[in-house]
Design a protein that fits this description.
This protein is of the alpha+beta class and 512 residues long. It has two domains: 3-223 and 486-511, Periplasmic binding protein-like II (D-Maltodextrin-Binding Protein, domain 2); 275-479, Dipeptide-binding Protein, Domain 3 (Dipeptide-binding Protein, domain 3). It is 34% helix and 21% strand. It has 16 helices and 20 strands. The strands form five sheets. Strands 8-9-10-1-11-18-12 form a seven-stranded mixed beta sheet. Strands 15-14-16-13-17 form a five-stranded mixed beta sheet. Strand 8 (196-202) and strand 9 form a beta hairpin. Helix 9 (293-302) packs antiparallel against helix 11 and helix 15 runs antiparallel to helix 16 (454-470). The protein is globular. It starts with a helix and ends with a strand.
């Protein structure tokens, strides 16, 4: 297809989308009002740039405000056409071609072209970057609106990795601006294609955003959004009750129950691909008690997952036996390991620890300390004696990447994709967050990565997940459904607008 023909097709798509958007918007005119968003974490400037995004969902709460991707979750679609009006895969599975929407502009007015897409992909070095580097032979800007990826061989996970929150490789940043200001300058004042542009930020504490009226999808309804980093759950609750926040993220236990009891507030459970599990980081060390399968099995039987669910999640978080969320493609649907403290003590005795042993520190993912305390108590009850070590969230994730966490910690992941993308990050021995691995699991991962038949892929991935259970590689706890408190000023919270995503579609939030 010629460049002119591509332009004509692109304009036809844009006209159709514009007409659809006008029908969707109805009588909307200009953005108005202010929305205050109390998040459960500090807000680092590193989240302004997708270049090193980890295998976590939390940064996308900021990234999708400022930026956009070629393909990403859209209302009703796990992978919908965003900056790309369309894409196609070659019959042999080795080429992917994307057609950009014409007329896209960054917040500073610069046009977005295929060169920005290529530049963004080549500079990406976050989770999944190793897989992209090994499997993508070339990416080229065919013309201003067309980008083509050439793979060394068919890779059925290219789109789940590139077009979802499994990675941030598909987010597009402005080449010209970034080359002018550098990465440090970009973190001070990011420019993107998202529904909101940066007004100001106080590192870790507050981000002030203003609606970008040139956003391709539709003009946001709210003019100003203020994100506040509030790690303390009691403070987020108090802000919500006093009207100092319109939404409070990730509420636990009694704090969430208090929102349920307040007739002025609404508690919403998210439906995203998040999960929490106990990691045995030293299971590959013959000198560690966790090297013994029976010790890991004992830890699994020690946990009353349903009781933890009720205490921390008010029953919204179903217990599980694998670390792949059940809402993902190719996830093994299974029942959790039975809570059996007597069996746990028996296994410890068989492993040579009839009176238990001192297991050191356990670090839970911040700020989910209700879950952490419950796990610590259940382990102590059977003789796996641990103390809880609380950490600041940024320090926790930094230590996780650098393999410096204690031998026991509660890990969590909420990025989407499918079972294979989860395996790549946490089970495959070369994954960014893996603390070790097994050769046969690595071989299964590599085998499924080349298998284009969905049924055969599912068989391979189910076998891999079954082996993690048989080896008690982890102690999975539950599919985590973050609980969000919504204040009385909100008419439409848009929390469930994006499939597999825990955060609201900011451009779709409406105030009364």
């Amino acid at each position: 297809m010629s460049w002119l023909a591509r332009m004509l097709v692109g304009w036809a798509v844009l006209i159709a989308l514009t007409l659809g958007g006008e029908q969707r918007l109805g009588a909307q005119t200009t953005p108005s009002g202010e929305f205050i968003y109390a998040m459960h974490v500090t807000l680092p400037p590193s989240w302004f740039d997708p270049v090193e995004t980890p295998a976590q969902i939390t940064p996308f709460g900021v990234l999708y405000a400022l930026h956009d991707a070629l393909v990403r979750p859209l209302p009703g679609q796990r992978r919908g056409p965003a900056l790309a009006a369309s894409w196609r895969e070659s019959s042999d599975g080795t080429t992917y071609e994307f057609t950009l929407r014409p007329g896209l502009t960054f917040h500073n007015g610069d046009p977005c072209t295929s060169e920005d897409v290529v530049y963004s992909f080549l500079r990406y070095r976050g989770v999944g970057a190793g897989e992209f580097k090994s499997k993508v032979k070339q990416v080229e800007a065919v013309d201003p609106l067309t980008v083509r990826f050439h793979l060394h061989a068919p890779w059925p996970d290219f789109m789940p990795m590139y077009g979802s929150t499994a990675t941030a490789a598909g987010i597009v940043v402005p080449k010209k601006y970034l080359e002018q200001v550098g990465e440090d300058g970009f973190k001070k004042h990011p420019i993107g294609l998202g529904p909101y542009k940066l007004v100001s930020h106080l590192p870790g504490v507050e981000i002030v955003l203003e609606a970008f009226t040139g956003y391709w999808w539709h003009v946001p309804y709210i003019k100003r959004i203020i994100m506040k980093g509030i790690p303390e759950g009691t403070t987020r609750l108090a802000m919500l009750k006093r009207g100092e926040a319109d939404m409070a993220i990730a509420l636990e236990g009694e704090i969430a129950a208090e929102v349920q009891r307040d007739p002025q507030l609404t508690l919403v459970d998210t439906r995203h691909a998040s999960i929490l599990w106990l990691e045995f980081a030293q299971q590959w060390d013959p000198k560690s008690p966790r090297h013994d399968l029976r010790v890991r099995q004992a830890a699994n039987h020690a946990l009353d997952r349903q009781a933890i669910n009720e205490a921390a999640c008010l029953g919204f978080c179903p217990p599980t036996a694998v670390i792949v969320p059940r809402v993902m493609d190719f996830a093994l649907q299974t029942e959790p390991v039975a809570y059996d403290p007597q069996k746990a003590k028996q296994l410890l005795a068989e492993a040579g620890y009839p009176t238990g042993f001192d297991a050191g520190e356990l670090a839970p993912t911040p700020p989910f300390y209700v879950i952490g305390e419950a796990v610590v108590n259940y382990l102590n009850a059977v003789g796996i004696r641990v103390t809880m070590r609380t950490m600041e969230r940024a320090a926790f994730y930094s230590a996780w990447r650098e393999k410096k966490l204690p031998g026991l910690y509660i890990a969590g992941g909420g990025a989407s994709g499918n079972a294979a993308t989860r395996v790549e990050a946490f089970i495959y021995s070369k994954g960014q967050y893996a603390t070790g691995g097994y050769p046969d699991l690595d071989a299964l991962f590599q085998q499924q990565a080349l298998e284009r038949d969905p049924g055969k892929r599912e068989t391979l991935l189910h076998r891999l997940q079954t082996l993690t259970m048989e080896r008690a590689m982890f102690a999975p706890i539950m599919d985590f459904r973050a609980l969000i408190g919504v204040g009385p000023k909100v008419a439409e919270h848009a929390i469930h607008a994006l499939p597999m995503h825990p955060f609201p579609a900011l451009e779709d939030i409406r105030l009364k």
